[in-house]
Amino acid sequence: xxxxxxxxxxxxxxxxxxxxxxxxxxxxxxxxxxxxxxxxxxxxxxxxxxxxxxxxxxxxxxxxxxxxxxxxxxxxxxxxxxxxxxxxxxxxxxxxxxxxxxxxxxxxxxxxxxxxxxxxxxxxxxxxxxxxxxxxxxxxxxxxxxxxxxxxxxxxxxxxxxxxxxxxxxxxxxxxxxxxxxxxxxxxxxxxxx
Length: 194
Description:
By secondary structure, the chain is mostly helical. It contains 7 helices and no strands.
């Protein structure tokens, strides 16, 4: 029995040493363009379990009144729409480069319980780009955001149009079309893009 326990200890020490070498030598791929791998699978499992645990025991009642839903919509447009998009609204261009990508509002977000959704909005998710809105939003504002997220599946065509109209429109890839020529900076003076 002692030899068996010693073998387990040696395996754990070797695995730990290899893991430490891998991390501290800079060999752990951290670029957002890295395809999904074992690290991502472990992180996603940890995230789902942490969200489940974080939402357990929370007593959250999402508001249903029109004023709260409207307030949640405004907060969503300002803070969430660029990453998550909305019904008929694509996320902002930069969200395409996020890894992991933000979930669609009509997709995985709807699988969370109200308490889990509230917990994620309030606490954020480390290393995902999801900020913690609890640092600058009150619980009733967070509940209103969650209530709006829940309501998105039932938006009318007119509400979807309003949401799309509120989304920022990116057209910077069309520089030079109909614009004045760049300023002449003189010889030897670098031209800086702002």
